[in-house]
Amino acid sequence: MADSTDFAWLVARIRSGPPIGFFRIGWVRALANLNEFFVHHEDVRRANRQGPRNLTPAMDAALWRNVRRGGHYLSRRLHACGLEIEWTGTDERVTVQPGAPTARLSGPPGELLLYVFGRQAAAQVDVSGPPEAVAAVHRTHFGM
Asked: Which domain holds residue 106?
């Protein structure tokens, strides 16, 4: 069992923030935390047969920002084609992997994030494009 000095040290360590390095940068930490919290929250919901939530416009916008920023990294294992990501119902679209042929991943921002984060089976998205590009997307392991 930890004594009170260990607990005081732990609280001080957590309050001091992340160690020196990449995650000391505020926007990097915010991007990673939102992604992690959203995806793991949805992991629990989907495991309990609950579908997508109705998100606020602000949450959709924040998730879309993260999909745009992290899409290239999260789709880095996709080599056989290009990939566009589209926020359904808007004119928002971004190319995260250049290449031809190009597949398009369409859906709400949260569902797109789930897909590129490696939760393809749970994400409710549409994959469209030439058959060989769609097949390449389905074969690819996305995510961390």
From this structure: 23-139
Q: Where are the beta strands (DSSP E) in the chain?
A: 82-87, 93-97, 102-107, 126-128
Integer CA distances (angstroms), 119 to 24, 26, 43, 93, 143, in order: 28, 26, 8, 21, 8
Question: And the tokens for 85?
Answer: 């990501």
Domain annotation covers residue 15: no
Q: Which of 30-34, 35-39, 73-77 has the lowest mean pLDDT?
A: 30-34
93 lies in some domain = yes
Single pTM value for the model: 0.79
CA angle 91, 92, 95 (to 5 degrees): 125
